[in-house]
Amino acid sequence: MKTKKTRSAPLTADNICFGLNRETDERSLAAFLQRFAEPAFMQTLIPRLEKEEITSLLDFLSRLMHKHCSEKEYHRLFLKD
In this structure, what are the phi and psi dihedrals at residue 41, rounded to the nearest 5 degrees? Predict the structure, then answer.
């Protein structure tokens, strides 16, 4: 049985947590990825990555997008075509 999702306030770094329930996991993942993609963090992290880490991360993310997004969604939402 599906439960109705309620809109909750965005999570901050202080209250990102995983394992409680699906809704909290989804909100925590979104908050985590937003923080991960912050330009200042990316400018610090990317130069430190090994070539294999860059390739592995790109491959992993590409597989997820291919598995869970249609081509139209990919172009509209990711490429912003």
Answer: -70, -45
Q: For residues 9 and 23, is the Cβ–Cβ distance under 8 A?
A: no
Q: How far is it, in rounded angstroms, from Cα 60 to Cα 67?
A: 11
pTM above threshold 0.85? no
Once rounded to an integer, what is the mean pLDDT over residues 29-47?
96
- Specify whether the CB–CB gap between 65 and 74 falls below 8 A: yes
Token pair recorded at residue 75: 């172009």
The first and second tokens of residue 67, run together, are 């598995």
Distance of CA 71 to the CA centre of its chain: 19
Q: How many CA atoms lie within 13 A of 38 on its CB side?
A: 8
CA dist., res. 37 & res. 43, Å (int): 10
